[in-house]
Amino acid sequence: LATNIAETSLTIDGIIYVIDTGFCKQNFYSARAGIESLLVVPISRAAADQRAGRAGRVAAGKCFRLYTSHAYHTELEAQPVPEIQRTNLGNVVLLLKSLGIDDLLHFDYMDPPPHDALVMALEQLYALGALNHKGELTKTGRRMAEFPCDPMLSKMILASEKYKCSEEAITISAMLSVNNSIFYRPKDKVVHADAARKAFHHVTGDHLTLMNVYNQWANA
Predict the structure, then answer these.
(1) Domains delineated in the chain
(2) Helices 166-176 and 206-219 meet at what angle, rounded to 10?
């Protein structure tokens, strides 16, 4: 069953049949709402061709597409939406600023990001203290750029030094950086899964719940 991984150059021996559902999960960021969501969306024709290519990599094979030829030619886009045009640009802006690139609005991108998403990222970094009123990188911003995580999490880690809770902040940041949900909830065992999840619940919210998950795993 083909997923996004099948669109890479990864080759798995023995794969001669591929089932292509025509859908994939992608992150989309709404600059207006400030929310990032994982959505199920149709794949592109380029992605479909890559998935089909997995079937004949090591031997003759077949790809079974769960959509019509008409849908392939008329409903699927030729190429997928570039990631820079659908995700939070906070990390990108912080990296470019740390490399000495100041004029981000006129920078020669391979795929130009949405203007509102770029402005939102600049405003967010200013609010976090990573940029000054001139849009220049601050000392705090340079330290934040060294962390391989979202700018909000980077600022939390730096602030934790003041409040003597760095270990907890790093743990929570790591748990929040996981792309997929850490709680497995199979459809045929929903009641059991929800009951098991309550063992990690913390009344103050999700952040300490995630820390409970990590601590119980570390102590197991």
Answers:
(1) 4-81 (3.40.50.300), 84-163 (1.20.120.1080), 181-220 (no CATH)
(2) 100
Express each pLDDT in 99-132 by its tens digit: 999 889 889 999 999 998 899 999 999 999 999 9
Q: What residues does 203 pair with on adjacent strands?
A: none
Residue 218 tokens read as 């570390």
pTM value is 0.77
Which pairing describes strands 17-20 and 62-65: parallel, antiparallel, or unpaired?
parallel
Grouping H, G, I as helix, E, B as strand and the rest as coil, residue 157 is: helix
Give CA torsion, residues 9, 65, 87, 35, to 10 deg: -140
At 94, list the tokens.
């912080």
Q: Is 164 left (phi over 0), alpha (psi -120 to 50) or beta?
A: left
